[in-house]
Prior knowledge:
Helix content is 11%, strand content 29%. By secondary structure, it is mainly beta. The chain folds into two domains: 2-14 and 293-337, Type 1 dockerin domain (Orthogonal Bundle), CATH 1.10.1330; 31-287. A hairpin with a 2-residue loop joins strand 5 and strand 6 (130-137). The two termini are 26 Å apart. It binds calcium ion (4 copies). Residues 320-322, 324, 326-328, 330-331 line the site of one calcium ion.
Amino acid sequence: MKQILILAAAAMVVAAGAQPSNDGVAITSKYPGALIAAQSNYTGFGDNFSELNTLWGFRTLSTLYLGVAGNLEGNFNNLHIYIDSIPGGGNPFFLNQGCLNCSVVGMSGVVWDSGFTPDYVLSISHGGGVYYVDLIDITTDTSCYQGEGYTDSFSGLLFGGSDCATSGLLVAFNNTNSMGITSDSNNLGDPFTCSTGFDIQIPISAIAATGPIKAAALITGGANLGDLCGSNSLPLGTYVSNQMLPAMNSGNPGSHYNNLAWSHCPDALGGANGIEFTQATGDQCADVVWLGDVNGDWCVDDADLAIVLENFGTDDEQADVNGDGIVDDTDLAIVLSSFGVGC
Ligand SMILES: [Ca+2]
Ligand SMILES: [Ca+2]
Ligand SMILES: [Ca+2]
Ligand SMILES: [Ca+2]
């Protein structure tokens, strides 16, 4: 019986292992089993202008796939994706690359949650229908311009990037969402009604990942590195919204955080020298899913296969890899398509 199931599943591997389309639509349905976080905080940056509804992500041997459902206002607001892909890195991190990527540089000194040491930042800046993508390497304090794309063009291709741009790095952005969360702290709305936003593919080689990956998404405004906060004499830094995934009030959705304001100034969350995410409820970072790793040991092997087979036909939550409520050949195919990864 086992053998028949494996053979049947193997035939489906191509279909189940297919990569999600990179077009900025259907984000809530094309990353099955890979939900990382959902918004529980209203937006202070404008309903349907700048909001983060849901964050999805999984990695394979070769590629990190991320889906971000939401909007980004075309006034040069920024979406930052912080990626912790290797041991070490910056918590806090300090960048000194001038204003090449002001909004990321202005996050220097921000204190992240324990265990989150970002190594790379994917920065997307949106101005009037054109978005600009940079990949910042925190360890080397360098950045590489990946190119520009055009909102609602249904293509993840980027144009005009520097020579250092990563082949195979795709970012599609559909900014048409008019659903999802609201700007009303008393009436949040439903983040899962927003299905459009960003589809992102990053080759694993570009982020040097050897194992588990953690990620966080954050919307910011511009940066001001010239004027000082006042009481602590630090540059103002980056203007930080309340739109983060995992949400700033994760673990306590009843409370709400307003925009945090300038990243280096006192009292954003309570820190004397700026933002300390350790003072926000919950963890503002989360594990990217490794599809097929049923038992969570970051290796897809026969132990995972056995769990799926033993629970075949049931609704066992652990063995239901794609989270559709039934353990069937689709789950088996996902495990087989990732077999050996990370081991
Ligand atoms: Ca790290
Ligand atoms: Ca909305
Ligand atoms: Ca495993
Ligand atoms: Ca399933």
